Every structure is written in C-alpha cells, then in structure tokens.
Amino acid sequence: MRIAFYCKDDFNLGVAYVIAYLKSKGNEVRLFLEHNENTSVLRQLKFSPDLVCISCVTANVEWGINLAKKIRKISKVKILFGGVHPTLCPETIEREGFEVCLGDGISYFGGTFEPDNTWPDREIFLRELPPVHRAYQIFMTGFGCPFKCSYCNSQNLHRKLIRRSADGCVRELEYLKANGLKYVLFVDDIFTINRSWLIDFLRSYRENINLPFTCFGHTKFIDKEIATLLRNSSCECVWLGIQSGSEDIRKNILNRHETNEDISNACKVIKDAKLKLMIDHIFDLPGETYESLLESFRFYKTLRPDVVNCYELLYLPHAEINKFGHSEAKYEADGGRNYNKYAKSFQALPLFCNQGNSLSTG
Question: What is the spatial distance between Cα 256 and Cα 3, in angstroms, rounded to a whole number?
Fold first, then answer.
C-alpha cells in the first residue's frame, strides 16, 4: 500500500513510530510536512497514495480539516485522521465526512506498540527538516503520566504508563549518536519518576552515550541524590512545570497539590547541583488576578530560574479546567462560543533570565 502522511511543520514522534511499523510491513510511505500546503498537495498527487493520514492536535485541527478538504477536491483517496484531538473529539472530524483512527495508530493498523523493538522513523522527518534537527532531538524513555492536572487531557486518553527498558533506550541512542546526535531532550512527562530505573539507565547512558541533555522533572520526584546523579550524567537543565506561584490556584483550579515549600526544595537541589532550572507559567488561568500574578513573580524570583517559559492557557477538549472557563474560552462542546480563537493561542516565550542574583525581562 502507498501511504501519505501529513504533519504540521515539525517532528512528530507518534507518527514516526507508526511510519516505522507500516514500513516494516512492506508499505511505501511518504511524509509531507506542511510548510506549503499547496506544494505538498501537488507532491502528493505525483505519489498517488492509496491512503492519506493526517495527524493533528487541538491547536491545528482546523489546518488538518482544511487540508483534507483540498485533497478531497482533487482526489478520491481515503483520508484518515489521527492524533490527540481526533481521538478525543472524533465527532469534529466525522461530521466533515472523514474517518478517524482512535488512539494508538500502530494498533489501528494491526500491530502492537513495542518501542524497544520498533524504533521511530526519524530519517523520514530529518530529510524534510533543517540539518540542526539531526543534532538536537527529542527522546522518550516512557509514555504516560500518573497525575491529573485539570488543564491537561492526558488522563482522557486512558493511556497506561509504559516504561522502555534501559538497554533498549541506550541501543537506540547509540544509533542516533552514530548518525549525528549531539544533544537530547527527554520529553517523558516525568523523566525522574522511577528512581531505580533512572539509576540503571543513567549508569549506562554515562558509559555509552554521555551527551548533554535536558529532561522534564517533578517536584515530587527530585531530591539531592537524583539531582547529583543527573548532573554527573551530563544533564544540563531540568524543566519543571509549576504553572502558578499561587498555591490556591494550583490546588483548586489546576489540581496540583504540591506546596510552595515542595517547589522551593526541589528547585534548591537542582540549583545546588549546578543544573540550569527552567520552569513553566500559564497566563489567563481562571481566578487569576493582578495580585496572583505578583505573587507568582515574587515566588519565582526566590527560585532563581534560568528561564521561565510563559504560556497562554489553552482550553483542551474535555479537560477538567473547562468548567472554570469563561463562556468564550471554554471548549465548544462545553458551551464555548468562540473556542477556536482560544484553541490556537498557544505560545511559549522565555520571559525571565537569571542574571547573577536578580531576574530581569529578556
């Protein structure tokens, strides 16, 4: 079968796994990154696929639907949508007359997700992306998250926690290193969640890979021993999601129960280990006031972060936080009047830089 995959602009790890599986079964697969919609549709016509797959999330589902309509005008090829948004809200795709893959794409095509045995096809993306993408790559050693933050819809995907073997991860990283990898961003929801696994993995990582990396942590899963272990294993930066300096907003709006003391302790051990600290903040949270923003600013200043990533709240489908949203910002199925405007407002900007002992805008 000849299969065309469409993604929006960048590397997509989930799609890379599906493509690798499909190729292993003898299918011919072509990737079209959506830098230029009209050009990619013309390239697809020359490929003449039997199936077109479009992967999208909430923030770009409108792009995906518009693309599918363009393809439909010039071809009768079957079009299949997949990704987080189509899985959670298949009705938004099906009402346009397109089919939906619910959940795991490999399972949809008859296989089993085995990340230690079927590595994602990164090359098909790297051929379409600038050369720097080969040197700086994301990697996941585990999938899923045990927490239920109100602004996230991960729990609605019913995803069980999957942890790859340390040996399987290192073998794939060795291959990537031999092919130009220089820096790793571990994008597991919580890289440090399993202490015994982490100790085994980092021991092998130091011996066989030893490249600088950044990872996502959590205040409940970071202490002096782990921070020191990370630093001694070439970690340069730990990334924590804090989202607000207000304990009240975190607990009652975001369903995050770590205290400011918990956060302060975690950040201290990170800084004491000479690691860079990156934290996240979300603007426009329900209940946000000038006073709560000032509280956040003052609290973050005590943490001495190197970067504060700032995001505008995105009301995701079926996320618990929708019940707090104002009438226009709520997800459309929950009564929002102008949801699409807010669904596309995602942005991430470094706001504060640590310069000596003071924070300044940058």
Answer: 42
For 134-262, strand residue ranges (E) read: 136-139, 142-143, 162-163, 183-186, 213-216, 235-243
Residue with tokens 């051990």: 269
pLDDT value at position 332? 67
- The answer to whether 52 and 78 are in contact (CB under 8 A) is yes
Q: Would you give the distance in Å from CA 150 to the centre of its chain?
A: 17
Q: Are strands 51-55 and 28-33 parallel, antiparallel or unpaired?
A: unpaired
Residues of the chain with pLDDT under 50: 345-362
Rg of the chain, C-alpha, whole Å: 21
Whole-model pTM: value is 0.90
- Compute the residue count for the chain: 362
128 in helix, strand or coil?
coil
Q: Determine the pLDDT at residue 167.
A: 98
H/E segment holding residue 99: strand 99-100
Residue 122: closest CA among 147, 102, 140:
140
d(Cα 359, Cα 253) in Å, to the nearest integer? 27
pLDDT at 343 (0 to 100) = 59
- Domains of the chain with bracketed CATH: 2-108 (3.40.50.280), 130-361 (3.80.30.20)
Q: ∠ CA 198-201-204 to the nearest 5 degrees?
A: 145
- Provide the 10 A C-beta neighbour count for residue 310: 15
Sheet with 99-100, strands from edge to edge, namely 28-33, 2-7, 51-55, 78-82, 99-100
Q: How far apart are CA 327 and CA 56, in angstroms?
A: 25
355 φ/ψ angles, rounded to the nearest 5 degrees: -125, 100
